[in-house]
Design brief:
Layout lengths: L1 E3 L5 H16 L8 E5 L7 E6 L3 E6 L6 H13 L12 H13 L24 E8 L6 E7 L8 E5 L6 E3 L12 H9 L8 H7 L5 H14 L8 H13 L1 H15 L7 H9 L7 H14 L2
Helix pairs in contact: 1-2, 6-8, 7-8, 9-10
């Protein structure tokens, strides 16, 4: 069953129905359950996505000027509803049926195109990256200017960027801490008095910005070994490990060893835990190593 967004005109609906007929006449195994809507971006003519309610949702840009271009885009997206058997979106069965359609009709189905869009049908883009802020490294006091989305200014945690001088993660707002106004020597001396096994997550957040790399490694290592991860794997917790892991190869290596050996042991029975585990090392040199480790542990647990 096909349904249509009320913003799709009667003429556009007829073009979509024509696209459906063309593809079905060629016996392409496209879906019979799809909802058609619009997209108003700057750079894409349409998209196809799985949808819990409708089965599939296909969006086509109302700014496509020529009827043939609109129908061509509809066919392109309809072919995405065919099972692609594990191939990437423009390979496998999509590529096969795109060739069949192109060979048997006037429509040439390609991955990219250079269609013209009616600019009056393009939704105006909101400016989100429009707030500049000077951030001070908590360790070496180096100041750097970053541009943020408005909503991130309210965030009290880490950012992905790290200091070019000492590799310490920057903060949008430095947390209050007993170490904030102490010298490097005084911070280390205070660190030596801590009972690391009983440091809470809140204390961890307050201490990490002001510790040198060796103390950071020791604190993180002890914390990870002596604390259970939150059952939902709290996003703030992910961000903490990700920020520090990216800032230091030594810390990243330590975390990798801890997760693979101390924390996970020899088994990994939950697939979601595997993905969460791998997330920490995304965009790092350890990612592929960790991914293979996770697959092996998961496979061995069956």
């Amino acid at each position: 069953m096909y349904s249509f967004d009320k913003r799709i005109t009667e003429h556009q609906r007829k073009l979509i129905e024509e696209a459906i007929k063309i593809v079905k006449d060629l016996n392409a195994p496209i879906t019979d359950t799809c909802h058609f809507t619009i997209t108003q971006g700057y750079s894409r003519y349409g998209y196809c996505a799985k949808d819990k309610k409708y089965g599939y949702k296909i969006a086509i840009h109302p700014g496509l000027i020529e009827d043939d271009e609109y129908t061509n885009t509809a066919i392109h997206e309809l072919l995405h509803t065919i099972d692609n058997e594990g191939y990437t979106i423009h390979r496998g069965n999509w590529k096969k049926w795109a060739y069949i359609v192109s060979s048997n009709t006037k429509y040439k189905i390609t991955v990219t195109d250079n269609k013209k869009l009616d600019t009056t049908k393009i939704k105006k883009r909101k400016s989100t990256y429009n707030v500049c802020k000077d951030l001070t490294c908590p360790m070496c006091k180096h100041v750097q200017t970053f541009t943020f989305q408005k909503e991130l200014i309210l965030d009290l945690g880490f950012i992905i960027n790290s200091c070019k001088k000492c590799q310490k993660p920057y903060y949008l707002n430095l947390p209050d801490s007993i170490l904030k106004d102490k010298t490097k020597y005084e911070r280390h001396e205070y660190f030596k008095t801590l009972d690391l096994k009983n440091v809470s997550f809140k204390e961890l957040q307050e201490l990490l910005p002001y510790l040198d790399e060796n103390d950071t490694i020791e604190l993180l290592s002890t914390f990870v070994q002596n604390n259970e991860f939150p059952s939902e794997f709290n996003s703030q917790y992910k961000r903490l490990l990700f920020a520090y892991g990216r800032a230091s190869k030594n810390i990243l290596s330590m975390l990798c060893d801890l997760y693979c050996n101390a924390k996970l042991g020899d088994t990994l029975t939950n697939k979601m835990s595997q993905f969460e585990f791998e997330f920490i090392f995304a965009r790092t040199e350890f990612y592929h190593i960790v991914t293979e480790c996770g697959k092996t542990l998961y496979s061995n647990s069956k």
